[in-house]
Design the sequence.
RNA sequence: GGUCACGUAGUUCAGUUUGGUUAGAAUGCCGGCCUGUCACGCCGGAGGUCGCGAGUUCGAGUCUCGUCGUGACCGCCA
């Protein structure tokens, strides 16, 4: 080894010891008579001292060391005269006797410190420099610890980690596939998996009754801060289980992570809310339940008083902002503007201030008297001092807008505390949703999701009413994972494909092998998959999963460091029998 | 596929509203001074195709159009 210790481990107990350290020059402070250097490695920072009195030649040499030079130093550990309480190694320093430059460095394009001066673009281009920063380093360490804890828990629960192929087959339904041309099979393409769904079900059929995999998945769709074209799932499947069994095992896994990683267990068992209930109480299927502020319907209370905004609306709903009756005109205008943005799409915002004196003041005073406004307040659970915010319009759009408004208000009122975690299971999703563009039903989860037993008889008569035996894990408004009990008979699976509008020929060519597999003894099974990147981001306290991925892509799917994707040569194309079209 | 914002020194930004002399700041970088710093301090210096292209104008960093890049969002993401 080129070193005897790391830059994070030396303490007072090591004083007097002769040590050799290696690392990067974080910073030099040249005082004239003496020079201090902060030496950094993965483990921390240790201060080096050079002194003109002792070794003038060495001290002069040290001034030539630039930022990010890689050096090896030999010296003695000694107690500092001025200690630095902000540094774990701040009680000691190294009196350098000799050093050697192991690698010189250009001047880095941005400063490699906690508060970097670099913007997103340049940091992605020089990702290997950005990764030297403590924030990203700690995120990657967190990711590692979580991966280890997950493997540890699932291993002890008897799960086997089994790899599945990446070069597979393009199938309809779901996200757009990334495809890979096959040189040996002219004009044919593999697809990269959107998830190992079919493989894990085949593993259940093969008798591996508890499977998991930390696995890359690929979806060729447009990106967001919480979406990358390739991302990592914790993919799990179990046989001979019902919904409760699955939820129990993975509640256990979530709590194991909370305990091992954050030392903070939110609840032994997580609340469960049906999809319908989530939609009516929160306006979304991924509610943030760290705070109340639930949506209350006011439709019957507001109709018929001549206010067109209500009279013409299918639905009117309110949320109650506790203690916000004193909000200024400016604050209310800002929040009104917020809901009127095209992304939220509300026509306007009606507010009612329920004053401390017990009277009401609203933006629709002209149409409603104090008593009726008080009635709304009571209905929505508001007390004197609270602010009622009301949106009206079509039921679906208004609920969606209220859900967005609810989050925004919570943000402004400081109710979304980073260190509080509120997990919740959302259950009983609709099995299908209607696709307006294609004029057909499509699977809300995926085509292998089992209907609830009691809704099975509706499958062909009234597919829109069928509920799925499916569940999502939502933490703090972030969809962390989702899964379902799967269809395990050929008959139901075929009915499912029929409702989705597949012809028998299409089913045969796309899923023939799968239907065939059902015929050789298929156990009842179900599972779940978690977005590992999102989970790490949640624990790291960041919204962007790029912060927890070593080498992420930008929002156009480009790798700014590699400058990929890129063109390939004519000879590569020829080998693949591919001609580019305009 | 669409909407919006941004693009000025190595970097992060101001300047654009109202076109007008030599485009500024901070930080970084280079040189000098400094023996207890840790956001070291002080003095001095260098550093610019205002993304690119066209247009309007006596005159464009500033206005218009196009284009490229970056970010956020809608659609999309079973």
Sequence:
């Amino acid at each position: 080894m080129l070193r005897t210790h790391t830059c994070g481990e030396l303490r007072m107990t090591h004083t007097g010891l002769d040590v050799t350290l290696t690392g990067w020059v974080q910073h030099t402070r040249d005082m004239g008579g003496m020079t201090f250097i902060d030496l950094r490695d993965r483990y921390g920072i240790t201060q080096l001292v050079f002194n003109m009195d002792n070794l003038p030649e060495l001290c002069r040499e040290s001034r030539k060391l630039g930022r990010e030079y890689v050096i090896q130093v030999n010296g003695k550990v000694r107690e500092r005269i001025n200690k630095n309480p902000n540094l774990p190694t701040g009680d000691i320093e190294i009196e350098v006797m000799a050093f050697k430059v192991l690698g010189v460095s250009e001047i880095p394009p941005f400063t490699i410190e906690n508060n970097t001066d670099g913007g997103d673009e340049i940091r992605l281009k020089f990702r290997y420099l950005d990764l030297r920063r403590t924030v990203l380093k700690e995120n990657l360490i967190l990711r590692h610890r979580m991966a280890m804890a997950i493997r540890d828990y699932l291993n002890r629960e008897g799960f086997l980690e089994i790899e599945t192929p990446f070069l597979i087959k393009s199938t309809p339904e779901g996200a757009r596939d990334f495809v890979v041309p096959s040189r040996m099979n002219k004009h044919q393409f593999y697809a990269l998996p959107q998830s190992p769904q079919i493989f894990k079900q085949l593993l259940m059929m093969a008798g591996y009754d508890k499977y998991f995999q930390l696995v890359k998945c690929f979806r060729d769709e447009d990106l967001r801060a919480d979406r990358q074209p390739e991302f990592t799932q914790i993919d799990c499947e179990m046989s001979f289980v019902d919904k409760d069994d699955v939820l129990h095992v993975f509640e256990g896994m979530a709590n194991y992570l909370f305990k091992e990683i954050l030392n903070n267990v939110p609840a032994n068992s997580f609340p469960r809310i049906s999809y319908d209930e989530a939609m009516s109480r929160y306006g979304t299927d991924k509610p943030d339940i760290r705070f109340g502020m639930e949506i209350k319907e006011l439709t019957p209370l507001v109709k018929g008083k001549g206010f067109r905004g209500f009279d013409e609306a299918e639905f009117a709903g309110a949320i109650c902002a506790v203690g916000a009756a004193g909000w200024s005109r400016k604050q209310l205008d800002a929040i009104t503007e917020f809901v009127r943005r095209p992304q939220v799409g509300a026509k306007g915002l009606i507010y009612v201030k329920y004053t401390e004196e017990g009277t009401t003041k609203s933006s629709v005073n002209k149409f409603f008297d104090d008593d009726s406004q008080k009635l709304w307040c009571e209905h929505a659970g508001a007390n004197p001092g609270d602010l009622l915010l009301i949106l009206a319009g079509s039921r679906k759009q208004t609920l969606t807008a209220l859900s967005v408004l609810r989050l925004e208000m919570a943000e402004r009122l400081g109710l979304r505390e980073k260190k509080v975690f509120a997990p919740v299971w959302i259950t009983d999703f609709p099995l299908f949703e209607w696709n307006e563009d294609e004029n057909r039903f499509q699977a809300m989860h995926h085509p292998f999701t089992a209907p609830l037993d009691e809704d099975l008889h509706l499958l062909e008569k009234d597919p829109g009413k069928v509920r799925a035996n499916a569940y999502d894990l939502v933490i703090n408004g972030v969809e962390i994972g989702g899964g379902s009990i799967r269809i395990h008979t050929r008959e139901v699976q075929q009915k499912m494909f029929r409702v989705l509008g597949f012809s028998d020929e299409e089913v045969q060519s796309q899923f023939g092998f799968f239907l065939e597999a059902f015929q050789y003894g298929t156990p009842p099974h179900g599972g779940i998959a978690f977005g590992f990147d999102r989970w790490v981001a949640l624990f790291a306290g960041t919204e962007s999963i790029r912060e927890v991925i070593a080498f992420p892509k930008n929002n156009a799917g480009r790798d700014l460091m590699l400058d990929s994707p890129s063109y390939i040569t004519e000879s590569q194309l020829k080998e693949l029998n591919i001609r580019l079209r305009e």
Observations:
- Residues 112 and 324 of chain A are 42 Å apart (CA to CA).
- The radius of gyration of chain A is 30 Å.
